[in-house]
Amino acid sequence: MTRQPGPEAPHPTRPAGPQSLTALLTLLALLPALCALFVLTAPGARAAEGDPAVSLSKKEAGKGAEITVRGSGWRPDALLMLLICGQSTPERGVIGGTNSCANADGRAVTTDRKGAFSKKLPVTEPPKPCPCVVHVATVTGEQELADAVFTVAGHPTADLPRQGGDGKLAVLATTRLEGDSSLLTWFGAPPARRLVLTVGNLGSDPIEDPVFEIGTAHGVYAPQWEERQWRGTVAPGGKARIELPVELSAGAHGDYQVSLRYGDKVLAEQPWGVGRPWGVTLFWVLLCLVVPAAVFRIGMAVVDKVRPRPAGVHRLRRPTAPPAVIAKTKAKTNTNATTAVLPWFTPDSAPSENRPRPTTKGQA
Predict the structure, then answer these.
(1) Which of 28, 185, 256, 342 has its CA 20 to 30 A from that of 144?
(2) Cα separation, 211 vs 99, whole angstroms
């Protein structure tokens, strides 16, 4: 008797043991670490979280030497300016703005994709006495800066000016823009005005040579800030009339917003409507009319020069005959022309003055 094969019995499922559960938990624990590693190694990721940092190859050097400035933690592909500034410390910053720095001997550098850089900087004496710093700041975009302590050997040293924490400026009158556009502005020259305002010192300390920041914004873009220092002193409880120059880029037109900032406080904002430079438009319109016309004239002259001539027309210039031959030829041509014009006269019948008059009857 042959045994028929029947369905196989199902194999019992082995329950998950402690080892499988441990491996699963280990994988879940390593997953965040793997994600963090991927983010840190991704292109353009910042090398370090937090504020930008600056380090120097030397803490002290004399005039004419050279130091290497290294930085990390900056924005990728950011343009930076490196300056040696006097009357400054990392805690108080650059007192007096960039007027305390050796601007003529500064260097520019662009950070890499990780936000780091390395640049050699010549050592020069700043216009203000030490303590000094190497000041690194962004040129465009959101402002970022960092200072590193540096000593210029042989440069004078002086105490920092007393910090007047009780000096406060406030705008007392309406801010306005003064000045008119010139004829050159109509042809694309940079528009310029003077920002005029009256400020008062509401604190108990005098404010000497305050450094303001003027920002110009167009449309939805953030304002671009530039430092403007006003020479003078505002006594406690006193007021002063301040005029600061404002200038836009060449060819600027449209609605602009001019802002005035002192420290971290925006003191005033003033709209500025800049007209379109119609002289530039007129120039391009004339250029679009004159150039095609000149090209057309030149093209027609070339076509007239190279086009084929009809048969029998000689391009070669005939030699010029002497004046006597030309006069004789003209006389002969006139005689032939007269004969051709009057064909009804023959040489015998043509009237002549030498022929005797016919006599009439009754005359001798």
Answers:
(1) 256
(2) 10
